[in-house]
């Protein structure tokens, strides 16, 4: 655990019930997880425990239970949790289907970007397994940031010309694959504060009806559809047009959807260089 700024520490206490003895509670939870799944397995998911405690508002029993569920999910889907490096995912990110902004919104939330129309070219090149492996790697890096753990995350989604059948054409994009995707979303320690979508076609309502049974309850309650009213979406999301690419109703030109992976790759390389005393941590710059 890191030393938090006074404002962030106060927010954690008010919104997440963070106790005065948070470090002691964390250590107790860690020891319980070790007793249940083993020390090596606990180390494997060391990045998740603090985030899960904050997600559970410091309900230690709930966080420990979720850690065990994550370990069980990983044992059933071991192909998703192999050791990976940033360069393995740059080709996926270049398509522009998923990224996040290098700035937070007015509430301090990290802003993920999902461009639905890019799902078609993505599905032609990659499988559901590729997508989930990228998501697991992505989450394990994002959730190291204590600011992200406390403030949470929102998603902006561009649904213009969303390809309804793209997932069907993706290898592994069966109902079982979609279920595995939602199961991972439920088990991850992401504090999703809202999903803000624009330019949705008429059939999105039908698709939501099919996928809602697999969505966590809180996600179902935090999906907002704005149609063509991009200004209203940005206002609700706590963002200005200058901060957001045009696909999401903003005016930010030349956005590099791989910026975070390139930063992580630089960090990985710097960490391996002899004589480097301290590399810049990616989370310091919103990774």
UniProtKB/TrEMBL annotation:
Short name of any one Pfam family annotated for the protein: CRAL_TRIO
All residue ranges annotated as the CRAL-TRIO domain in the record: 86-256
Gene Ontology annotations for the cellular component aspect, listed alphabetically: membrane
Any one GO molecular function term: phosphatidylinositol bisphosphate binding
Superkingdom to which the source organism belongs: Eukaryota
Protein name: Retinaldehyde-binding protein 1
């Amino acid at each position: 655990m890191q030393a938090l700024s006074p404002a962030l520490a106060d927010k954690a206490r008010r919104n997440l019930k963070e106790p005065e003895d948070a470090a002691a509670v964390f250590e107790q939870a860690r020891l319980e997880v070790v007793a249940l799944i083993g020390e090596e397995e606990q180390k494997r998911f060391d990045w998740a425990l603090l985030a899960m405690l904050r997600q559970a508002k410091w309900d230690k029993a709930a966080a420990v239970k979720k850690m065990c569920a994550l370990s069980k999910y990983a044992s059933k889907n071991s192909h998703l949790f192999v050791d990976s490096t940033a360069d393995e995912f740059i080709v996926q990110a270049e398509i522009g289907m998923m990224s996040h902004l290098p700035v937070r919104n007015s509430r301090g939330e990290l802003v993920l970007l999902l461009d639905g129309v890019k799902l078609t070219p993505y599905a032609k090149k990659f499988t559901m397994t590729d997508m989930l492996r990228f998501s697991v790697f992505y989450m394990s890096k994002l959730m190291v940031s204590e600011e992200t753990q406390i403030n949470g995350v929102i998603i902006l989604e561009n649904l213009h010309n969303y390809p309804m059948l793209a997932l069907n054409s993706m290898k592994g994009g069966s109902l079982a694959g979609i279920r595995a995707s939602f199961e991972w979303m439920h088990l991850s320690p992401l504090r999703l504060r809202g999903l803000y979508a624009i330019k949705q076609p008429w059939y999105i309502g039908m698709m939501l009806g099919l996928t809602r049974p697999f969505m966590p309850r809180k996600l179902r309650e935090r999906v907002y559809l704005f149609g063509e009213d991009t200004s209203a979406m940005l206002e609700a999301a706590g963002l200005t047009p200058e901060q957001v690419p045009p696909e999401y109703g903003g005016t930010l030109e030349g956005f590099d959807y791989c910026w975070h992976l390139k930063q992580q790759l630089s960090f990985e390389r710097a960490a391996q260089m002899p004589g480097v005393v301290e590399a810049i941590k990616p989370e310091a710059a919103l990774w």
